Amino acid sequence: MALLAGSEGAIAEWAGEIGGRALASPCGVSRYWEVRAAVEATVGTFGSLDVLINNAGISEPISHLSIADPDAWGHVIDINLKGVFYGMRAAMPVMQDAGGGTILTISSGAAHGPVEAWSHYCASKAGAAMLTRCADKEAADKGLRVMRLSSGPVATEMQRRIKASGINPLRQLDW
């Protein structure tokens, strides 16, 4: 199992909990060359890449469009949308050459409806949902299963920050 995360400390700890079957790769999904290198390291270590789970996502800064910082807004797009594309782009040729594989994109209810002060998150998740559908259409006949999962709100550190923002209705959800 290969684990990727932007933080080397957290990913090394998770790999240690799993044991010798885990490869820890620090990787910023907003940089294609890092994602490609992680896929290559995975194939080099395990001999194949069977499953890709696109799970990276951020929602900060939570901000109304009229005052949003353009660079910060774009950074969310870089991770939540372009990161999904980079994962697919790096993994799909490897999986197709092997005759199959599965790509799962973790989605959100925000992909389907607007949420106040979350335009970047909603737009990026909607884009990732459509990108996942496109990948499925293009790769189903090549042995790939490409799908998404929309779990709804999950008690994570991201949800803590949303609650603390006091801005949108998600702050009202029970922990």
Question: What does the model show?
Answer:
Helix 3 runs parallel beside helix 4. The chain has five helices and five strands. Strand 3, helix 3 and strand 4 form a beta-alpha-beta unit. With 175 residues, the chain is of the alpha/beta class. The strands form two sheets. Strands 3-4-5 form a three-stranded parallel sheet, with helices on one face.
Which secondary structure elements does this structure contain, and how are they paired or packed?
Elements lengths: L1 E4 L2 H11 L4 E4 L5 H15 L4 E4 L15 H29 L2 E6 L12 H21 L4 E6 L7 H9 L10
Describe this structure in a few short sentences:
The chain is globular. Helix 4 (119-139) links the parallel strand 4 (101-106) and strand 5 (144-149). A three-stranded parallel beta sheet has the order 3-4-5, covered by helices on one side. It has a two-stranded parallel ribbon with strand order 1-2.
Indicate the percent of residues in helices.
40-55%
Question: What is the first-to-last residue Cα distance?
Answer: 31 Å
Number of strands: 5
Parts with pLDDT < 50 across at least 5 consecutive residues: none
Helix vs. strand class: alpha/beta
Let me know the average pLDDT.
88
Helix count equals 5
Biggest β-sheet description: 3 strands, parallel
Protein traits:
single chain; 175 residues; alpha/beta; three-stranded parallel sheet; two-stranded parallel ribbon; 5 helices; 49% helix; 14% strand; globular
